[in-house]
Automatic annotation (TrEMBL):
Taxonomic placement: Bacteria, Bacillati, Actinomycetota, Actinomycetes, Streptosporangiales
Domain of life of the native organism: Bacteria
Stretches assigned to the HTH lacI-type domain: 3-57
Any Pfam family hit: LacI
GO terms for MF: DNA-binding transcription factor activity; transcription cis-regulatory region binding
Signal peptide bounds: none
CDD domains tied to this protein: HTH_LacI (cd01392), PBP1_LacI_sugar_binding-like (cd06267)
Protein name per its UniProtKB record: LacI family transcriptional regulator
InterPro entries xref list: HTH_LacI, LacI/GalR-like_sensor, Lambda_DNA-bd_dom_sf, Peripla_BP_I
Keyword tags: DNA-binding, Transcription, Transcription regulation
Length: 326
C-alpha cells in the first residue's frame, strides 16, 4: 500500500499538520523537526500529493520554460540546468517551443499561466509591450531580453562581440561583416552596438547584414551577402556553420579566404572542420540563476523588486579564424 502522510507523522512522532507544513511551508517548522520528518519520509518512500498541496498553498509547484527553438543547440544546456535547479527546489518544469513565432509564444504563455507558478521566457520574440501586458497573468523572468520592470538574466554577448572584433583586427582584418539574427532579437542589437563601437575604436570597416534566419540555412543563404569581407561575426553557431558550408560551396576556404566567428560554443561547432572560433555563452549558469530568481519572485509576489543579472561571456579561439588574406 502507498505510504500516507499519517504514516510519516506516526513514525516521526509529530502531528499530521507538522508533516504537511514540512512540505508546504518548511520555514515554519523547527529545523531539527523538519530534518527528521524529511529523513523518515524519504526512508518510507512517501511522496506528497501535489494536487492536494496546491489546494492548500495556492501553489502548483510547476514552472513554465518557453524557448524560441528547442532544436537550436543553444537551448538544451539551459533547459537541463533549469530543470535540475527546479528539482532541487521541489518544482517541476514544463518546456515549450515557440518555433520563433511570437503569436505561438503569446498563446503558450496564456495557456501555461493557468498551470504554473511562474514562467521563464528565453530569448522571447514578443514585443516588450505584449510581455508587459502578459506579466499580469503570471510572474516572469526573462533570459536575454531587457524588459522594463521585469527580472532579467542577460548573457553579455556585447562583451564577446568586442573581443571577437579585437581578435579579428589582431589578425589583420579590416573589412568585417556582422550577420545579425531575426528582427526583435535582443542579442542582435547587443552585438550590433558592441561590434560597431569596437570597429570604430579600431578604425575598421563593419558591414551589418540582416535580418537573417538563426539557422544553418540562414548562414548558407548569407554566403553571397558577405562578399568583400575577409571576416564574419555571426549571430550564432548555427549561422556560422551554415556560412562556412555556403562559402565552401562557392570555392572559398575558411579561414584562408574568410575567417568566421560564431556565438554559443555549441557542440556542433566544436566538432566541425574547421573547429569554430566562437563566443561562449554561460547558458547553464543562466538557467540555474533564472530559476532561483523566478522562485524568489513567486515568493515575493507583487512586492518583489525586479533584478538585473548579467553573466560574462568570453571568446574561444579555434580553427575558423586566421590571418587576413593578402
Amino acid at each position: 500500500m502507498a505510504v500516507t502522510i499519517r504514516d510519516v507523522a506516526k513514525a516521526s512522532g509529530v502531528h499530521v499538520s507538522t508533516v504537511s507544513r514540512t512540505f508546504s511551508a518548511p520555514h515554519l517548522v523547527n529545523a531539527e523537526t523538519r530534518t527528521r520528518v524529511l529523513a523518515i519520509a524519504e526512508g518510507l518512500g512517501y511522496r506528497p500529493n501535489r494536487a492536494a498541496r496546491a489546494l492548500t498553498t495556492g501553489r502548483t509547484h510547476n514552472l513554465g520554460l518557453i524557448v524560441a527553438d528547442i532544436a537550436n543547440p543553444f537551448f538544451p544546456p539551459l533547459i537541463k540546468a533549469a530543470q535540475a535547479q527546479a528539482r532541487e527546489r521541489d518544482y517541476h518544469v514544463f518546456v515549450a517551443d515557440t518555433d520563433e513565432d511570437p503569436l505561438m509564444e503569446q498563446e503558450l504563455i496564456e495557456t501555461l499561466s493557468k498551470q504554473v507558478d511562474g514562467v521563464l521566457l528565453c530569448s522571447p520574440r514578443l514585443s516588450n509591450r505584449m510581455i508587459e501586458k502578459l506579466r499580469a497573468e503570471v510572474p516572469f523572468v526573462v533570459v536575454n531580453r531587457r524588459v522594463k520592470g521585469l527580472t532579467t538574466v542577460l548573457m553579455d554577448v556585447g562583451q564577446g562581440a568586442r573581443a571577437a572584433i579585437g581578435h579579428l583586427v589582431s589578425l589583420g582584418h579590416r573589412r568585417i561583416a556582422l550577420l545579425t539574427g531575426p528582427d526583435g532579437s535582443w542579442t542582435s542589437e547587443e552585438m550590433r552596438t558592441a561590434a560597431a563601437s569596437a570597429a570604430g575604436d579600431f578604425d575598421v570597416e563593419l558591414s551589418v547584414l540582416g535580418p537573417n534566419e538563426p539557422t544553418e540555412q540562414g548562414g548558407i543563404a548569407a554566403a553571397d551577402k558577405v562578399a568583400g569581407s575577409t571576416a564574419v561575426l555571426c549571430y550564432n553557431d548555427l549561422v556560422a556553420l551554415g556560412l562556412i558550408e555556403g562559402l565552401t560551396d562557392r570555392g572559398l576556404k575558411v579561414p584562408d579566404d574568410v575567417s568566421v566567428v560564431g556565438v554559443d560554443d555549441s557542440l556542433p561547432g566544436r566538432l566541425n572542420k574547421p573547429k569554430l572560433t566562437t563566443i561562449t555563452m554561460p547558458t547553464a549558469a543562466a538557467g540555474r540563476m533564472a530559476v532561483d530568481l523566478l522562485l524568489a519572485a513567486v515568493g515575493a509576489g507583487e512586492s518583489g523588486t525586479p533584478t538585473l543579472a548579467r553573466l560574462e561571456t568570453s571568446l574561444v579561439i579555434r580553427e575558423s579564424t586566421g590571418a587576413a588574406p593578402a
